[in-house]
Each structure stands twice: as C-alpha cells, then as structure tokens.
Amino acid sequence: MPLAVYILGLSVFALGTSEFMLSGLLPPIARDMDVSIPQAGLLTSAFAVGMVVGAPLLAVATLRLPRRTTLVTLISVFGLGQVAGALAPTYEVLFASRVISALACAGFWAVGAAVAIAMVPVNQRARAMAVMIGGLSIANVLGVPAGAFLGEHLGWRSAFWAVGAASGVALIGVVARIPRIPLPERRPRLKEELTIYRDGQVWLAVAITALAAGGVFCLFTYLSPLLTDVAGLDAGWVPTVLALFGIGALTGSTLGGRIADAHLFGVMLSGITASTVLLTSLALFSSYAAVAVALSFLLGFSSFFTAPALNARMFNVAGAAPTLAGATTTAAFNLGNTGGPWLGGVVIDADFGFASTAWAGAAMMLVAIGLVTVAMRLHGRSRVVAGATAGAGAGALRTERV
Questions:
Q1: Model pLDDT for residues 294-317, shown as the tens digit of each residue
Q2: How many Cα atoms sit within 13 Å of 58 on the Cβ side?
C-alpha cells in the first residue's frame, strides 16, 4: 500500500474530527456564544449541509482539474476554515466557517477517493478505501474525545486550533507524497450519470441512509449534555464516553464490512433494528450513568456496523454512475447528519429534555426499517424479473440452435 494512501487517511482523520467533535463541545460553545444548546447543535447541521451540497457539486466540478493540485487547495481551505472557527467572534461567523470547511471536506473526500483508487492495483482498491475510512473511524476513537478533552481544559477554541494543526500536517504530506495523477482520457458523461436519479431504488437508498444516520446523530449531537445533565456524570467523563462510542464504531465498521458483501440486507436490517432498540433503551434508562455509558458504546457499534452495507447498496443501485455514486452516498449520510441534530433541537426546545432526542432518533430508525423492507421486496422482484428474462433468452437461443 503506497504511503500516499496513508497520507489521505491522515487527512480524513482531520476532516472527521472536525465534523464530529462538536458533540463534546456544545455546552461551552453555547455559553461563550450566548446561544442555546440546540442553536449550538445547528453547527453540526451546518457542516452536514455543506457536505450534502459540496459532495456532488465538487465531484463534478473537479473532474478535469489536476488531482494533486485540487487536494492541496481543498485541504488548505479546510485548514483555514478551522482557524476562522477558532477566531470566530460571533456565532454567525462560526456558522459560516463550518459551512466553508464542509464544502472543502466534501470535495477532498470525492477527489481523495479517486486518487486512492488510481494509485493501487484493482485487487487492492478495497484496502485503499479501508485506509481512508479508517481515518474516519480513528477520528471517532481519538480525535473527538481529544477535542472534548481540550475543550474541557483549554477552551473549545483550542479544539479548532488542534484540527487546524492536523490539517497543516496533512497538507505537508499531500504536497510531499501525493504523486501527479494523470487525468482520465475519457471524461465521464454527466448527462448519462444523472439518469440514475430516475431510478426509485436510488432514492430509496438515499432515504434509508439519511434516516439511519439521522437517527444516530439526533442523539449523538447532544450526547454531552445528556451524559452530564441526565446521567449525572462529571464533564470529565465525556471524552471517555466519546472514545467508547468511537471504539464501538471502529469495531462495528470492521465487522460489518466483512459481512455486508454476503448478507447486505441482513446487515442493514439487523444493524438499524439494533440501533432502534439501543436508542429506545437510552430514552428509558439514560438517568443511570453506567447504563448510558454502555449503551453509548453499543450504539457506536450498531450504527457503524450498518455503514458498509449502506455504502454498498448505493453502489449496487447506482453502478452506472461511478462519478456520482460515492458523492450521492456522502450527501445521503450528511442529509441525515443535518436532519438529526435539527430534530433533536426541536424536541429539546419543546421542553421534552435531552433524553427525548433518543426517542426522536428511534422514530427515524423505525421509518428506515420500513424502507429497508420495501427495498428488499423490490430487490427480490427485480431478481425474479432478471431470472425470467435470462430464462427466456436461453430458450430463444435453444430454439435458434434447433
């Protein structure tokens, strides 16, 4: 595996830390910016909105640009966005910095994946992508808890400075180790790829992914105040619980990735069902500190156990559009990361309490389960039709031979 692929994984570590670290920083940000915790939670939604918009747009816009130059530009803009967040004098400036950072993050994901694939043989593509996704998992294990620790002891702005520094290290690595990747001889035809959006299965996959992600982030965004205000844990415990969530996520994604190829719908259905049960349990028993900690770990496992199958499903139904399939998956996940925190903020503002975010997340998961069932039936019908068509073709061939 080329060293350059690991450089991309390091870059993704910085990107993922920035995206998820606010879950441990909401209370101090809310106090410093003189806003409510639900308003502070919208900063997570702002990042997700930037990812939703940026992933497909930048995937298309950078098709003919030099890959290495594009990566250098995007990681630089991302790092500057972190500096702007660290220096933000107002909530509005911080909000804008999150959107700009997210646009750069989405573009880096789209281009970085293409570069990783281009640098390895066909039989090592999965490993290359695993390295990049591993950067995201490690961000949940180390980066997010470290951000919460810095926020607790040095102020929330220190976490932004730390991610900015990590972005600088990634920039040096990209400049030094990423080779010049030749542009493809034949440019993908955007008009042809856009036809995938006429397929109802694609939109069904988008909805399932968005609901599965949104159900988790409806709670995860407000996990810090839930642990301190409902479970009664000291704020110093928050980084530890976030690390446990990340360990569960890393374990879940590893196991789910190994099973999903053979049992795609089984992984989707079991993972989302488990997340529903865990969210319901958190809603009922979050006042018990030990239970809340254990359920946080298990929720990290179940949610990331499902992620490989959700990715694979999108590529299965949108395989005719290699340029947009990955971007659409990224947009779908972040559509959930937008809607989940928003819905969580709505129920908190309605004075239902922080535990109510778990109820809202479970409701989103129940809808996702229903849609997975629909997708399974449609998939079964399409296989029957394909089998009948193949049988008819074979019969016609036999007739011609006779």
A1: 999 999 999 888 887 887 787 778
A2: 27
